Amino acid sequence: MNTSIHNAATDQSERAKQAIELGLALDREARSETLARLIAGSIHEGPGTALERFAGNGILDAERALNELNRLIVPLEQEGWVDALGRYILFAGRSES
User: Fold this and answer.
1) Can you give 23-65 as a three-state secondary structure string?
2) pLDDT tens digits for range 52-96
3) What is the pLDDT at residue 95?
4) Under DSSP, is residue 80 helix (H, G, I), strand (E, B) or coil?
5) Could you say which DSSP state residue 89 is in?
6) DSSP-based three-state secondary structure for 1
7) For 21-37, b where at least 16 C-beta lie within 10 A, e where not — what string?
8) What percent of the chain is modeled with pLDDT above 70?
9) Rounded CA gap, 15 and 78, in Å?
10) Max CA-CA distance within the chain?
């Protein structure tokens, strides 16, 4: 693997982590779509998932996304991210009704 590509991916992951932590500190209820999409992009399980689609283009299938979140296993330090994203999805779903 090209080291510069690996370092760039690591840098982006670290920047995303910092942005998420800062975003959650400022927006405890995680009502920002930008923050929710950043979280979804950082924790989705791959192409074709509802979370990956939401992260990429903002189209949210709330039911599928919540099902994915319920099955997701993340490191302890990311559990707050999952909670925040779940709150966002529930809030967004309520406001669409």
Assistant:
1) HHHHCCCCCCHHHHHHHHHHHCCCCCCHHHHHHHHCCCCHHHH
2) 999 999 999 999 999 999 999 999 999 999 999 999 999 887 665
3) 61
4) helix
5) H
6) coil
7) eebbeeeeebebeebbb
8) 81
9) 15
10) 48
